[in-house]
Specification:
The chain is mostly helical. The chain has a domain of 26 residues. 55% of the residues lie in helices and 0% in strands. It contains two helices and no strands. Helix 1 runs antiparallel to helix 2. The radius of gyration is 19 Å and the shape is elongated. The two termini are 34 Å apart.
Length: 92
């Protein structure tokens, strides 16, 4: 896929993106309980619960897709009037 970066929008680092950090922090918050439960289960039984591992994989995959979507974003996104974010410009 070829990216078109001819937009006049200023470029910024992915680390300056609130979408990136939101995805990272959401992933950490979602993974933490599954990790804690797997550690406890392993300490008590010596086995790892495959359901906990699958939950972690799903969270990492969806967070990764969110970050990739932010990296590949080239179009301006508008929000409905009255909500935070850019409004659609009025046509003249």
């Amino acid at each position: 896929m070829q990216m078109n970066h001819s937009s006049s929008a200023p470029q910024k680092s992915i680390f300056q993106s609130t979408t990136f950090w939101g995805a990272v922090l959401t992933a950490i918050a979602a993974i933490s309980p599954a990790v804690a439960k797997n550690i406890e289960t392993y300490q008590n039984t010596g086995k790892i619960d495959p359901n906990g591992i699958s939950q972690i994989v799903v969270v990492l995959a969806t967070s990764g897709v969110t970050i990739l979507g932010r990296i590949n974003a080239t179009d301006v996104v508008y929000t409905p009037s009255g909500l935070p974010g850019a409004d659609k410009p009025k046509e003249q």
